[in-house]
Amino acid sequence: MNPLTASPRPRPSLPRLAAALILAGCALSAQADASRAPHTPLCASGQPAASPRDHDHHDEADRALSVAALTDDGRLVCFNEKQPRKARVIGAVNGLQVDTRLVGIDYRVQDGLLYGVGDAGGVYTLDTTSAVATLVNRIGPALEGTRFGVDFNPAADRLRIVSNTGQNLRHNVNAGGVTLTDGALNYTAGTPALGVVGAAYTNNDLSATTTATTLFVLDAALDQVALQSPPNAGSLVSTGKLTLDASALSGFDIHSSVRDGVTRGNRALVTTVGADGVAILHKLDLLTGKATPRGALPAGIVVIDIAVPLYQD
């Protein structure tokens, strides 16, 4: 085509051009808003990251985690760590057999599923979209106490159950699994520990057998964080005094940031319920006991335990 003789292309009219620019601007604005909006909490574990991702340079503390919570009236709830006030009720836990309610929940590293422990010793998997409970097996000894800590040991793949009576159990959730009664919770010189209300392990990855894991507990009677080591002996050593009302503790869990199958960082979260019945989420320093408030949940959602889904990186 001869550029000197070719007819010029018609130019778009100003109104049409303006409309196109407006539509493009709206699309860009929508994309920007979507990128700024906190992710919708799904409360289902992700998949282990095989290699570093684009956002690996961000600090673990900057990531907003999804958190599952169990309420005092038997509901399963999900919320975003940075916006707990927008908690979403999944539903009332249903499908319990013999048990009348759940006393604690946790995610299991080996399969990524959410498990719950019933007041009569039933161990269940929980559907995080419907709150349906499916019986897996039962804990042997009767549970003792009114407050419990429930958490999976990622290295041994055993469910640890501790209580405010000093009870210290280790349970195998696999078919035919048995429950072992370990040494009662105690401090130096055999002083009984009668205030433990929460438990959580670090390094929640499938390499924990080689990288090790540590069990922390929260003592509401002595207002402190303690290391349970060795876990089977029930021996406790204080690591820091809590900076919140420990009598109101209602949930505790540790999230591990995992890369190439190995934990790169751990973050502890805890919930409290005040005299007004409002649950508040805090970030917790396990070595000092310092608690930093993250926000309050809606009125009427009285939390008794929390569990953080795995692999949210």
Q: Explain this structure to me?
A:
With 313 residues, the protein is mostly beta strands. The protein has one domain (65-307): 6 Propeller (Neuraminidase), CATH 2.120.10. Helix content is 9%, strand content 40%. It is built from 2 helices and 20 strands. The chain has helices at 14-36, 208-211; strands at 66-71, 75-80, 83-92, 102-107, 114-118, 122-126, 133-138, 148-153, 158-163, 168-171, 179-181, 196-201, 215-219, 224-228, 236-241, 249-259, 262-273, 279-284, 291-296, 303-307. A 4-stranded antiparallel β-sheet has the order 3-2-1-20, with no helix packed on it. A hairpin with a 7-residue loop joins strand 14 and strand 15. The radius of gyration is 24 Å and the shape is globular. The N and C termini lie far apart (55 Å).
List the helices and strands and how they pair.
Elements: H1 14-36, E1 66-71, E2 75-80, E3 83-92, E4 102-107, E5 114-118, E6 122-126, E7 133-138, E8 148-153, E9 158-163, E10 168-171, E11 179-181, E12 196-201, H2 208-211, E13 215-219, E14 224-228, E15 236-241, E16 249-259, E17 262-273, E18 279-284, E19 291-296, E20 303-307
Antiparallel strand pairs: 1-2, 1-20, 2-3, 4-5, 5-6, 6-7, 8-9, 9-10, 10-11, 12-13, 13-14, 14-15, 16-17, 17-18, 18-19
Structural class: mainly beta
Instruction: Enumerate how many helices there are, as a single number.
Output: 2
Q: Helix amount, in percent?
A: under 10%
Per CATH, the class reads Mainly Beta
CATH topology: Neuraminidase
Mean pLDDT, all residues = 85
C-alpha-based Rg, rounded: 24 Å
How does the major sheet shape up? Answer: 4 strands, antiparallel
Neighbour order of strands in the largest sheet: 3-2-1-20
